[in-house]
Amino acid sequence: MGTPVTLIPGDGIGPSISSATVRVLEAAGADIDFDVQVAGMAGVTRYGDPIPEATLDSIRRTRIALKGPLETPVGEGFRSINVALRKTFDLYANVRPAHTIVKGGRYDDIDIVLIRENTEGLYVGIEHYIKIGNDPRAAAESIAIITRAGSERIVRYAFDYAMKHGRKKVTIVHKANILKFSQGLFLDVGRMIAREYANIEFNEMIVDATAMNLVLKPEKFDVIVTTNLFGDILSDQISGLVGGLGLAPGGNIGLGGAIFEAVHGTAPDIAGKGVANPSALILAACMMLEYMNDGERAVRIRSALETTIREGKTVTGDLGGSASTDQFTDAIIARL
Ligand code: NAI
């Protein structure tokens, strides 16, 4: 029996890029038993719930999920699906790798992994308006929560990730010069943990300087670890350095399990046309294989994917080609 994994194909282009990804995994001989579950609009259609209990139960059992993009239904009563999943399974580390596949673009040599704290900071949802005189919304307050325990586990995750993946340097990104308490605590904890990892170079950088240096000298960065809001912004910036979200995978990892996903959305403009690029979800599946200690297979799939993209003959429209999702997938499989 293979490793059980929950597969959430997703909405829009989700089912098409998911079946492409499953085909690649099967061709590579990955020993996985997929339990297919729904969420998002597909969840609403089947169960009247964007995060059905059956889907949560499946992830509780498998503790690993591969997820296509989901459409969060508009209207009262529906939570953000991604935030709900993160909270339910305490997925505290958001891992966003980005590296140059096709040289000759603006940057040739980028290989950065951004690790974002996923559960604290300004995104804890403690917000309110303050009434002054007759104006009920005269002011607004959003509170950032940083804890020692939360900082410790994310910084430790970043260093452990660096060790496991043969990386040389961890940069902690902060704004402790202004937010002396919350960001100050995060930085203090970071410095303390860094001392335990003598083999990994440690560097600290203020977030505004980081934004500039990522554009000027991105090759100086290796692993970056930062708090929730800064991580949200910088991870998309880093995807932009290597050509946008189309090739960007992400992992949400915690004690309760791990969910791997494509960073892009459901692409409603091309859904159902058979032309979506499955690369981001295939790369997310490679992160999943690494998480399952099947790194050798991940390397093989990534190499087949990257060679196909670099060759440029059988690629989808967003990559400058004219191949369908299926033709592109066949070309990757042929290289395995
Ligand atoms: P989007 O990422 O779906 O689309 C932006 C543009 O990129 C579109 O032109 C689309 O065709 C293109 N694109 C995206 N992925 C592609 C792929 N794999 N191959 C080729 N072209 C691709 O972003 P948008 O339009 O802002 O959001 C659409 C829906 O997706 C919304 O309902 C949103 O809530 C949802 N969404 C879901 C996410 C998730 O579940 N992780 C993340 C982002 C958005």
Tell me briefly what this model is:
This protein has 336 residues and is an alpha/beta fold. Helix content is 40%, strand content 21%.
List keywords for this structure.
336 residues, alpha/beta, Isopropylmalate Dehydrogenase, 2 domains, 11 helices, 21% strand, globular, binds 1,4-dihydronicotinamide adenine dinucleotide
Between the first and last Cα atoms, what is the distance in angstroms? 23 Å
Output the CATH homologous superfamily of the largest domain.
Answer: Isopropylmalate Dehydrogenase
* Apparent shape: globular
Radius of gyration: 20 Å
CATH topology-level fold name of the largest domain? Isopropylmalate Dehydrogenase
Domain count:
2
* Class per helix and strand makeup: alpha/beta
CATH class of the largest domain: Alpha Beta
- Total strand count, please? 12
The ligands found in this model are: 1,4-dihydronicotinamide adenine dinucleotide
Query: Could you say what the CATH architecture of the largest domain is?
Result: 3-Layer(aba) Sandwich
- Could you name the ranges where pLDDT drops below 50 across 5 or more consecutive residues? none
Main beta sheet: 10 strands, mixed
> Could you give the order of the helices and strands?
EHEHHEHEEEEHEHEHEHEEHHH
Average residue pLDDT: 95
